[in-house]
Amino acid sequence: MQWTLVIPLKPLARAKSRLSDTAAEGLRPALALAFAQDTVAAALASAAVRDVAVVTDDELAARELAALGARVVPDAPRAGLNAALAHGEAVVRACRPDSAVAALNADLPALRSAELSRVLDLAAEFPRAFLPDAAAIGTTLLAATPGAQLRPAFGADSRARHRASGAAELHLGTVDSVRQDVDTGEDLRAALALGVGRHTAAVSAGLLIPGT
Known about the structure:
Layout (H helix, E strand, L loop, with lengths): L2 E6 L19 H17 L4 E7 L3 H10 L2 E3 L7 H15 L4 E5 L8 H11 L4 E5 L6 E6 L13 H7 L3 E2 L6 H4 L5 H10 L3 H7 L8
Helix pairs in contact: 1-2, 1-8
């Protein structure tokens, strides 16, 4: 099964506020963009991915991610993460009603294409499925096969909310790169230990992060 991924990205100036103890104010937007670039590049290289739609109103991010091959969808609702994902899903399925659609976080800088393919191949066995994040509290991927709706419930405790909504929780072996999103300095250290993509590596090179 081939998937269309919907990746939401808030305006870079407001992104990654929880990295303030690790990255200076002026560097956080660059990190957020780098995370998204590495996420999109790895996603597009996955054998299970047909295409990627990025939902964003950030002009710089739109240009850079389109250059990688993503389709950019303006965030028309401007009502938060879940509204952006529902809008992206609607845009995708307006063109291809039979699409398999998965929502993927934009902050997976260590993402490996082969691991993403493994997750999506397993998700294809369920109408709706999700992958919890490394902290086992949130969600990094939510998938819906043709005929099913995403019904995103991202945010605090999204693992519990997606499970309560009837989505199947995916259990795989080593797919750490698909689970390691980055919100804090500790998350960034974990991603760097896994091995990040070239954009994040370049932007984070000047950071002094204890433990790396």
